[in-house]
Amino acid sequence: MNIINPATEELIAEIAQDAKDAIEQKFHQAKNAQPSWALKPLAERLKCIQVFYELLEQNKHALAKTLSDEVGKPLNQAINEINGARKRIKFFLDNSAHYLADEILYQEEGLIEKLSHEPLGVVANISAWNYPYLVGVNVFIPALLAGNAVMYKPSEYAALVGKNIHDLLLKSGIPAEVFQLIIGGREAGEQLLDLPLDGYFFTGSYRTGKYIYERVAQKMVPCQLELGGKDPMYITDDVADIAKAAEAAMEGAFYNNGQSCCAVERIYVHEHIYPAFVEAFVKETLALKLGLPSEEGTFLGPLTRKEQISVLEQQVSDALNKGGKLLTGGKRTGEKGYYFQPTVVTDANHDMLLMREESFGPVIGIQKVANDDEAVRLMKDTEYGLTAAVYTSNRDRAEAILKQMDTGSAYWNCCDRVSAHLPWSGRKHSGIGATLSYLGIRAFTKPKAYHLRG
Ligand code: NAD
Fold this sequence. Notes:
24 strands, alpha/beta, seven-stranded mixed sheet, binds nicotinamide-adenine-dinucleotide, six-stranded mixed sheet, 14 helices
C-alpha cells in the first residue's frame, strides 16, 4: 500500500497489506488468547492502558508528526488530537472498574440476583481516518479493558497511525495475540466480515456502515456504527455576541478542514441578524491561514483524500446553479496537494446538495430563516441525526428547540464537541449504538444474570 502525503503528494511509505490467510491466522490467535486475557484481573489490564496513556504523552511529538504527514492535519491540531485521546483514555481508566463490576440488583432471604458484565469475545474495530486516535480509542480501549481481543483495522488513509498505535499498545504490555493489527482497505474489511467475530464496531461513512450492518445481521452479534452527519447550527436573533457566535460557527465548520463527523455542515440564521452574522463569518473565514500542515499558524491543511475535491466542487456548482451566492472560496488551490479554499455560500436552500449531503470539507451553506419554527423544520429535514446546535442567550428557548431534534447530541452555545462523560451516538443514518460514557464501557460486554439461591 502506498502512503501519500496529501500536502505534497509525495510517497512517504509503502506498507504491506494483510492477505486473507494472514487475517485468518490473526483471528485464530486472538480467539485462542482472549479467554486468558479476560481472566486476568482488571487491574492488570488497567495497568497496560495506563502505560499506553503515558507513552502517548512521551511520544506525542513524533506521533503527531506521522499523523500530520499522513492525513494532512496541521501539526497543532494533530497534537490536540493526541491530547484529546489521552483525556478519553483517562476517563476509561477512572471509570471502568466501577462500570464493569458485578452488581447485586436484588436480594432477599436465600436469594441473590446478580448482574455481571462479560466480554463479547473477539471484536472488530474498523476505523476511519479523520481522527484516527480519537475514534480508535473510543473502541479499542474499553474493548480491551472489558477483556475482549480486538482485530483493529485502521483506515487505509491512516495506516501508519494505526501501526504506531499497535506498536505502542504492545509496548504497554498488551499481549500481541489480543490486539491484532489488520492493514488494508475495503478488502481487508470484507475479510473481517467473513470471519465469525463476536462484535463489529465501525466508524466511517453511512454507505459502508449500512453495508456492514446488513452483512453482520446474519451473525446475530452486536454491531455498532458511528457514521456521518449533516449537522445543523441555528443562530437566533437574541445571541449576546454575534461576532463570537460567528467565530464558533466558523471553527465548527472548518476545524480539521471540515472533516469531522460532527462538523457544522449547515447554518441557519434568524433574519434580524443575518447580514451581521454573514459579515462576521466571512471575516473569520478570510483570516484563516491555509498552508503546509507543518507551518506555524496553519489552520487549514490539505484534504486527506483527493476524491473529496470533486465532491466539494459539485456541491458548490450545484448550489450556485440553484441561487446560492459565493462569498469566498469555491475552488481547489495550490500547485501541489489536495487543497480546497474555505468556502462560504449564502442564500442557501434545501434544494441544494450542499444543505443535504455530507460535505466533509471546508464548505458551508448559510440560510436565512424567519423564526424558530422555520429553523426547526429545516434542521430536522435530514436523513442524518448526529448533532444539532443552537446559539441563543435563552436556555429555555435552546432546550425547546433541541428537544425536537432527532439527534444523539444537542448543543447550546457550543458545537463540534465530544465529551468522554457523555454517550457519543448517532441516530438514523448517523449510526446505531453508543461509545464513550458508561454506555461506551458496557457496549463491549454482554450481561449475565445470576440467580443465586442458598
Ligand atoms: P469509509 O466508510 O470509507 O471507511 C471506513 C472504514 O471502513 C475504513 O477502514 C475502510 O477501509 C473500511 N471499509 C470500506 N469498505 C468496506 C467494506 N466493504 N467492508 C468492510 N470495511 C470496509 O469512511 P471514511 O472515509 O474512512 O470516514 C469518513 C466517514 O466517517 C464520514 O462520513 C464521517 O462522518 C464518518 N465518521 C463518523 C464518526 C462518528 O463518530 N460518528 C467519526 C469519524 C468519522
